[in-house]
């Protein structure tokens, strides 16, 4: 008798069972927009498939009130050999539409997905973006009670993503409930009022979307920092190469900027209305001493990411022409003041970063300081001031993040050491001066005008 091992085969061991989800208790009211975040394998897709009825729970129960439409993965449920038009017709056949509604829905889907002559080509010939467009249009043509989206909104070009978001907004505003799984925190903030953070099959946090995103981003820094350690080692090994490249202005933009600072603008230059030229007006702020408090903390508190020892932010405030305030005005000067404290004595060579995000998570300002080189003893403090002269972002609510990084050329800052990072930790409100009520915009850009 021949044994299996003689031919190089091994007997298969029994697969181990594990709980993809455990102790999940969730009540989703009608009309809510809930984002679901978590690392791969956290149980996000399993939860959605339970709600869709693709899986049955081994324990507990799932109760659904209403019709469910799901966008789970590109191509799922669409026949590769059928044309786009045939797949649309097949997807609508089970919706109980009248004949006139059926034809109107087909026409609306074809118009929305904008596939042109490709609508009569086989689905298998479509790119992933084209497949996503067709699937999304078909899934949202007839309004369901519950819409489930798993990463599909990220497919396609920027134009169609924006178009899809507008359609989701319209569906939800009319009473549809939405569950959205996404690794894009900006997408969660844009489309969801609340969010759930799944971690190893359990709900780790369920709260306002901004608070969940903020906590989740902070948590991710441990795994991300570990994964990027190889990149950091490569960066350290290229110090000599970097020194050679610094002589090239294109590799080190600050050199180019420094050389241009001495140039004067022509006196005949015509500026935009309302007229301003960045950093040309005089500023007058109250004297700023070392800041020993963290002012204007954003909802959810300070989000301090895990960083290297050395320097830490110990004070933060925002200053207008009349003193400390987080109520600022477009096209008027503003100052951000930061205090840092030394955890260890030594010589430091670092840069400071400021990120201003809108409430949808989009970065509207991202600036880094020139190098700051100094000696400091343990426990001593240092003050940093950032003058925005004038503040050029438009009216709205914003959050501010602050970082302290070991100095490196700007293109390598992502892989350098980080002494501190306070993400989305402070909040400001920006208003238009009453005299500029007609000039609302996301950003006020300076411009030169010429007429001939």
From TrEMBL:
InterPro entries: AAA+_ATPase, ABC_transporter-like_ATP-bd, ABC_transporter-like_CS, ABC_transpr_TagH-like, Bact_Polysacc_Export_ATP-bd, P-loop_NTPase. Transmembrane segments: none annotated. Belongs to the ABC transporter superfamily. GO terms for molecular function: ABC-type transporter activity; ATP binding; ATP hydrolysis activity. Keywords: ATP-binding, Nucleotide-binding, Transport. One of its GO terms (cellular component) is membrane. Residues 4-225 form the ABC transporter domain. The lineage of its organism: Bacteria, Pseudomonadati, Pseudomonadota, Gammaproteobacteria, Chromatiales. This is ATP-binding cassette domain-containing protein.
């Amino acid at each position: 008798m021949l044994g299996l091992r003689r031919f190089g085969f091994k007997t298969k061991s029994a697969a181990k069972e594990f709980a993809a989800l455990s102790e999940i208790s969730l009540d989703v009211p009608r009309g809510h927009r809930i984002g679901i975040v978590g690392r791969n394998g956290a149980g996000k897709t399993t939860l959605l498939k339970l709600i869709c009825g693709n899986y049955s729970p081994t324990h507990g129960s799932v109760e659904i009130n209403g019709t469910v439409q799901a966008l789970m993965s590109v191509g799922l449920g669409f026949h590769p050999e059928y044309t786009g038009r045939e797949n649309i017709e097949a997807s609508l056949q089970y919706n109980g539409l009248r004949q006139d509604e059926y034809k109107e829905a087909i026409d609306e889907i074809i118009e929305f997905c904008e596939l042109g002559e490709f609508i009569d080509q086989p689905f298998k010939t479509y790119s992933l973006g084209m497949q996503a467009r067709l699937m999304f249009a078909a899934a949202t043509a007839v309004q369901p009670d519950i819409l489930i989206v798993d990463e599909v909104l990220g497919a396609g070009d920027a134009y169609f993503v924006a178009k899809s978001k507008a359609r989701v907004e319209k569906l939800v505003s009319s009473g549809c409930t939405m569950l959205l799984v996404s690794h894009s925190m900006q997408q969660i903030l844009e489309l969801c009022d609340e969010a759930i953070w799944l971690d190893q099959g359990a709900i780790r946090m369920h709260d306002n979307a901004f608070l969940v995103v903020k906590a989740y981003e902070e948590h991710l820094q441990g795994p991300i920092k570990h994964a990027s350690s190889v990149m950091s080692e490569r960066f350290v090994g290229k110090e000599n190469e970097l020194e050679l490249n610094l002589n090239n202005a294109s590799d080190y933009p600050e050199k180019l900027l420094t050389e241009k600072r001495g140039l004067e603008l022509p006196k005949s230059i015509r500026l935009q209305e309302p007229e301003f030229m960045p950093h040309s007006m005089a500023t007058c702020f109250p004297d700023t001493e070392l800041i020993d408090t963290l002012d204007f903390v954003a909802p959810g508190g300070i989000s301090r990411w895990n960083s290297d020892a050395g320097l830490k932010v110990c004070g933060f405030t925002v200053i207008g022409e009349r003193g400390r305030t987080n109520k600022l005005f477009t096209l008027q000067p503003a100052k951000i003041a930061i205090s840092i404290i030394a955890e260890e004595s030594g010589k430091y060579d670092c840069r400071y970063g400021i990120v201003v995000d809108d409430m949808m998570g989009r970065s509207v300002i991202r600036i880094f300081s020139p190098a700051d080189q100094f000696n400091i003893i343990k426990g001593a403090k240092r003050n940093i001031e950032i003058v925005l002269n004038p503040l050029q972002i438009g009216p709205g609510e914003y959050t501010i993040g602050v970082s302290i990084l070991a100095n490196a050329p700007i293109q390598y800052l992502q892989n350098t050491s980080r002494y501190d990072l306070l993400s989305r930790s402070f909040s400001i409100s920006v208003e238009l001066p009453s005299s500029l009520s007609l000039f609302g915009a996301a950003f006020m850009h300076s411009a030169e005008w010429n007429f001939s």
